Amino acid sequence: MNLRSPLRLLAALSLAGASFFVQAAPDVTVAYQTSADPAKVAQADGAYEQATGANIKWRKFDNGADIIAAIASGDVQIAYLGSSPLTAAITRNVPVETFLIATQLGGSEALVARDGSGINSPQDLVGKKVAVPFVSTGHYSLLAALKHWNIDPSKVTILNLAPPAIVAAWKRGNIDATYVWDPALGTAKENGKVLITSGELGKLGAPTFDAWIVRKDFAAKHPEVVKAFAKVTLDAYADYNKDPKAWLANQGNIDKVVKLSGAKAADIPLLLQGNVYPLAADQAVLLGAPTSKALADTAAFLKEQKKVDAVLPDYAPAVNATFVN
């Protein structure tokens, strides 16, 4: 009996069976913004693609509202956005969950008044034009600041402009102040005065943060991709946090952050040092009651400002620490 043919057949069937179980690399569209953070280096280096094994398409957005529309439609699976638009999305039942706290905001977002605008104190904002992207962390912070100063928002002309439009309006002299982030923030600071930062507002009871979120259906189907994505981000934060001065002294790091954020190289140290980048041990705590409470508090404020219709009874289902543990 000739056993060679059956053996060859068995080998062929084995190979076919093995190839059947090999999954194709998943396609994922990731929304990012121009904020300056240490993980921009990993993004520039292709570390996310290498670690996840996914075919990643990076899409730059100027504000969280546009990101939410894209992720709600299914065009985006993973996204970086601020706590205010995130809260609005969860409240409106967009199927997402927060899997990593990217940044606890400090000086990287601020309210800046133009030199010569006549704004020398918060009360001078009355009757002035202030630009901010609506339903952003800047918008939330602006309203929180006005509330802290006992200023009626209706007495301030608040304009809904995306960061690029803010830069253009600022250069034309069409606005008196803006609450925004870089690179628009850097432009405003060139001939403006900071009235308050998000870090200062946080100490007054209105903290804001940026987060990485994922569509629940994608996370359920590709948990290994989300976990690897989180690890790359946390490794980048650990690299920065172990010696910020040495990290900032590396011109290569600065150049990569500048490339993806649009911020000026000279501003990068101040922007990074003004924020907190939570490490893995911190994430395990933050991605629980602290974030759920922050989302609920933000939702209550947004409802008070008529930016959302209702507040959910519980925001915990939209927070998932699984991918960082």
UniProtKB/TrEMBL annotation:
Keyword Nuclease: no
GO BP field: alkanesulfonate transmembrane transport
Compartment annotation: Periplasm
InterPro entries: ABC_Gly_betaine_transp_sub-bd, Peri-bd_TauA, Solute-binding_3/MltF_N
Assigned keywords, A-Z: Signal
Family the entry assigns: Belongs to the bacterial solute-binding protein SsuA/TauA family.
PANTHER family: ALIPHATIC SULFONATES-BINDING PROTEIN-RELATED, TAURINE-BINDING PERIPLASMIC PROTEIN
The protein, known as: Taurine ABC transporter substrate-binding protein
Gene: tauA
